[in-house]
Amino acid sequence: xxxxxxxxxxxxxxxxxxxxxxxxxxxxxxxxxxxxxxxxxxxxxxxxxxxxxxxxxxxxxxxxxxxxxxxxxxxxxxxxxxxxxxxxxxxxxxxxxxxxxxxxxxxxxxxxxxxxxxxxxxxxxxxxxxxxxxxxxxxxxxxxxxxxxxxxxxxxxxxxxxxxxxxxxxxxxxxxxxxxxxxxxxxxxxxxxxxxxxxxxxxxxxxxxxxxxxxxxxxxxxxxxxxxxx
Length: 230
Hints:
Blueprint: E1 6-13, E2 16-26, E3 31-36, E4 41-46, H1 47-51, E5 57-59, H2 69-77, H3 92-101, H4 107-117, H5 125-133, H6 137-181, H7 185-223
Antiparallel strand pairs: 1-2, 1-5, 2-3, 3-4
Helix pairs in contact: 2-3, 6-7
């Protein structure tokens, strides 16, 4: 690896290895500028701190525009101390890609969001239980914070779908009522079928949101050191 390279390592989430990539900019002197966890601040750290002993990889741009190495590092330095981390819109990959190409982009988020749409929320429970069972207090706190972040991402994906489903359900209810007034039973039946379809979607999404709310409460209780049964 060399000055101005975009480098990354695989980090774990909830004790599951290789779940996501953590990106940074190589400064060429065994230091890296990156969005550091858990501070969620752009910092310059040692390469060892960045890798945490994990294998280092290079993000390559074979056919795309990239700034020259000194400019890449300068761009990274201009954002040192920034505390605007957002998992979906301004994560470590967004930052490093912006430094390298001028475009804030995260390929792993683009791949992750479609997965969330069909995600079984209940699957969030078991990995967290296993992770906390043998974790020391410091690691447990970090795992809980990462769990809250994961929950927030899923919530932010599901809630707009839930609101839209409610809106569609209510719209088709109005259409059905208007059709009845006009003695259009055929249109009323079709509208009621549409309403039922969206009502089922509302119920499914509401159940997922309820599960997320319950899990959030449990995670927060653990994070605050309160007694809670998992």
